[in-house]
Amino acid sequence: MSDTSSFAKIEKVDGPVGGQFEVACFDAAYLQENHQIDANDSVWMEIQRRDKLFSLVLKHASKHGKGDLTSFTPKPETKEQSLVDRIVGLGSATKCVSLVFGLGVAEIEHIVDGKSYTLYAVHQRRGPVVGTNCGPAMWQTLVVLCKGKQNKQALTSFAEQLLKEDEEADDNEFHIFRWDVQDSYWDMTGSKVARSLDSVVLPAETKNKVVTDLDDFLTRDTYAWYTEHGIPYKRSYLFYGVPGGGKTSLLQALAGKYRRNLCILQPTDPRFTDDKLADAIKEAPSRSIIVLEDVDALFDKARGSCNAKIQITFSGLLNALDGICNPDGQIFILTTNFREHLDAALIRNGRVDLHIEFTHAQPEQMRQLFLQFYPNASAELAVKFRDALVATLQERKVSMAALQHYFIGNRRSTPEEAAGGVQRIIEDMDEKAVEAAKSREAKGEASKEPAQQQSDKEARKKERKKESAGRASALHVHIHTGAAGGQEEEEEDEERR
Fold first, then answer.
1. Which helix (H) or strand (E) holds 315?
2. Which of these, 5, 96, 149, 174, is most buried using a 10 Å CB contact count?
3. CA dist 115 to 36, 97, 159, Å?
4. pLDDT at position 154, please?
5. What is the pLDDT of residue 18?
6. Are 100 and 73 a contacting pair, CB within 8 Å?
7. How confident is residue 6, by pLDDT bands cut at 50, 70 and 90?
8. How many Cα atoms are found within 13 Å in the side-chain-facing hemisphere of 482?
9. C-alpha span between 338 and 346 (Å, rounded)
10. Cα dihedral angle (170, 259, 224, 348), rounded to 10 degrees?
């Protein structure tokens, strides 16, 4: 790139206090001299570094770019393997390095309705190193130009093509984001293969209730209706019920079905403030399901904080959920094991639209889960497993997580062996109950210790006070007149001795 003094030479506009604003985001003189691009007869789009298109354009330019490409950024990779091989580490994963288009100008051919256009991707860096919340950085941007001011549709078509290709590549995945409280941005922590709704074994009524509601909400007609009536276009759900009931599984399946990101918020982080919570919700990636986990751990029914370190307020939480600046189309899911611990204002109509309960495993779920792990087993064997388990449990309840744990442990067993081993489920439950009791007892003793120490200290203090009182002599003062009085005083003194 040429000297930055020639940057944006197209035009300068005087500012209100005599300064100047740049009205072009590239070095016009450099492009004119080296690529014969007349900026006065071109159209362009500027892509910021955090924009998803930034990496997509660089990747595309690396594969299809032409021209004098001499600058690249190395990107270590592993040669493509099957999903199973990647997860369990089978086979010999070959490490390699791919070169991603670096600084400079790449020419890209793009066809729209049979007509070919030459686009120019200008990747540039400018200015001194500055400090940011994420460490030292330099201003960096990407500009895609096309000759001819009338060719704006070529830029639009090119951007849409890249996004469509990327969406097709990730069709079977969803991304998980967590809010980085320290640096105030959504950090993509990973991607997961979407699971189907059929793989989530819940009562049909539970799944249908959510899916029917979302299918109706995510339509043009519904959006138009909300807009017409001045109602914020958002939907909120409360997933409540026993631990291990399937809340997380259904969350993942919904993210896959509706091709949404999962954005996880943990407001119990002591660095969270009301403003940061509101910012997190406003800045959530598009097409996201925003999840607030274990909301009962924030406030009690009296709106008091459950943890002295929590900085957000109850009103701040409500304002963040109701924020008038929140983008349209957001979906909120609040999770809790104890709905009865929540303040009514948090889950009232209009703030939470639908309550979905997750219970212990029902007999029908037991049968379905058996067939899911043993799809080739007979229906009669699945019924046998269900009936044996119900009879063995008697009045006890078992979670879906506990049943899944049983089947994972029996993944090498035959269907007949798994159906006949239900007693092991009870034994595992008993073992877990003993461990939980011991853990509670240990925690109870630990919490009692400071109180016991204080009680012992108070007892010792009272004992010392009592002993001190016993050693002290009583003081009696008598005032008499005459000899008789003096005789009585001497007699009392003798008695005390």
1. helix 314-322
2. 174
3. 21, 35, 16
4. 93
5. 42
6. yes
7. very low
8. 3
9. 13
10. -150
The pLDDT tens digits of the residues spanning 306-325 come to 888 888 899 989 988 887 77
pTM value surpassing 0.85? no
Give, to the nearest 10 degrees, the angle between helix 379-393 and helix 363-373.
Answer: 130
Cα 258–Cα 326–Cα 311 angle in degrees, nearest 5: 110
- Separation between Cα atoms, residue 179 and residue 393, nearest integer Å: 42
The Cα–Cα gap between 177 and 278 comes to 16
Q: Is 331:235 a contact under the CB 8 Å cutoff?
A: yes
Locate 143 and state its tokens: 């500009």
Q: 236 or 491: whose pLDDT is higher?
A: 236
Q: Which residue, chain included where needed, has tokens 């009514």? A: 344
Q: In whole angstroms, how far apart are CA 238 and each of 177, 232, 329, 355?
A: 20, 18, 17, 5
Q: Which residue has the tokens 């105030």?
A: 184
pLDDT in tens, 127-168: 777 777 667 777 888 999 999 999 999 999 999 999 888 776
In the numeric block, which tokens belong to residue 197? Answer: 């709704």
